[in-house]
Design brief:
Blueprint lengths: L1 H5 L3 E4 L13 E4 L6 E6 L3 E8 L3 E9 L7 H19 L6 E5 L2 E3 L4 E5 L4 E4 L1 H9 L3 E5 H12 L8 E6 L3 E7 L2 E2 L30 H5 L1 H7 L8 H10 L4 H7 L1 H18 L3 E6 L6 H14 L1 H6 L3 E4 L6 H17 L1
Parallel strand pairs: 3-6, 6-10, 11-14, 14-15
Antiparallel strand pairs: 1-2, 3-4, 4-5, 7-8, 8-9, 11-12, 12-13
This protein binds zinc ion.
Zinc ion binds next to loops.
Protein name: ROK family transcriptional regulator
Family: Belongs to the ROK (NagC/XylR) family.
Pfam families: ROK
Length: 340
């Protein structure tokens, strides 16, 4: 703490309200502006850039929308660099490094995006491209991995050590934290939960398999379940889900097929990873409470691990749309503090 205090990352203050006798403990307060980082969430339909301070505070945010999958990597780099200049002008503090979330298969060591199918990016050295443009060290991670990190550090999984984050947007992704540590796997590619095959006679997935979980619980599947046209704008889908929140019976009826696929996927996840908590992100965070409750009961009943542990919980993300952005900031902070 003395070292962090000496470089201005935290301040120590005597609390104004004292409880009990004896010398009061000093309050340690993060100083948000001390070593800000640039956090970037490259989404399929939106890019968000923020200057984030220690403690996870977003000091300033810029964002723009894309037509689904229409943004080239070069355009993204240009826009992100412009947003950085804008944010620095506004806030008067320079980022020390950048963390980036991409919805795809990302090599952690150098930020190479192998495949980001919904962005139509293949083999893009995004970490290097953005690093050159910004003149900063850049760390790139998969959006669901970073969502898991965000939930673990700032969200509903703060007190849990064994966590799976499952997020459904256009694609479905997963992030895994076991024993308090992010699971990496070879190359950092672990956690493609959306591509577990759950329905071998189901729809063709772009990955080459048929009936991946993504084809049954992704945005398009949710639209089918809600009788909405494919490509319905996100706010309309969210509004429809919210309208079902008040009527549990109706929600269970309309989403029974969808809930069954989610249950099947999560039963596999529980048996494989034995999390104490599953955090539902993206559109899954807006599922009606009756559906979440029913899926919880079913996965506890159907999986061996669920029956043995008995207490696995499902929670909806409190960070919602910011999970990947907050995770990108945490990814950068991990490195800031690792080298400090
Ligand atoms: Zn697939």
């Amino acid at each position: 703490m003395d070292e962090l205090s000496a470089v201005g990352v935290v301040s120590e203050e005597v609390p104004t309200h004292r409880h009990g006798a004896g010398r009061p403990s000093l309050l340690v307060l993060p100083q948000a502006e001390a070593v800000p980082v640039l956090a970037v969430d490259v989404g399929v339909e939106q890019v968000t850039v923020a200057l984030a301070g220690v403690g996870g505070r977003l000091l300033g945010v810029r964002g723009w929308t894309l037509r689904r999958g229409q943004g080239s990597p070069e355009e993204a780099v240009e826009e992100i660099a412009r947003a950085r200049v804008d944010l620095v002008d506004e806030l008067g503090c320079e980022p020390t490094r950048a963390g980036v979330s991409v919805p795809g298969v990302v090599r952690r060591s150098d930020g190479l995006v192998h495949e980001a199918p919904n962005l139509h990016w293949t083999g893009v050295p995004f970490g290097a491209l953005l690093g050159d443009a910004l003149g900063l060290p850049v760390d790139v991670g998969n959006d669901a991995d970073l969502g898991a990190l965000a939930e673990h550090t700032r969200g509903v999984a703060r007190t849990s050590q064994d966590v799976v984050f499952l997020s459904a947007d256009v694609g479905v992704g997963g992030g895994v934290i076991l024993g308090g540590v992010s699971l990496r796997g070879s190359g950092g590619y672990v956690g493609e939960l959306g591509h577990m095959v759950v329905n071998p006679t189901g729809r063709q997935c772009y990955c080459g398999c048929r009936g991946c979980l993504e084809t049954e619980i992704g945005e398009d599947a949710l639209c089918r379940a809600l009788n909405l046209a494919a490509g319905t704008p996100r706010p309309v889908i969210v509004a429809e889900l919210r309208s079902l929140a008040a009527d549990g019976e109706l929600a269970l009826h309309r989403l029974s097929g969808f809930a069954e696929w989610l249950t099947l996927g999560l039963t596999n996840v529980l048996n494989l990873l034995a999390p104490e908590l599953v955090v539902l992100g993206g559109l899954l965070a807006v599922l009606p409470p009756a559906v979440v409750s029913s899926v919880t009961t079913e996965v506890r009943r159907r999986s061996l691990v669920g029956r043995a542990a008995g207490s696995v919980r499902l929670a909806t993300s409190a960070l919602a749309g910011d999970a990947a952005l907050v995770g990108a900031a945490e990814l950068a902070f991990e490195r800031v503090f690792a080298v400090s």
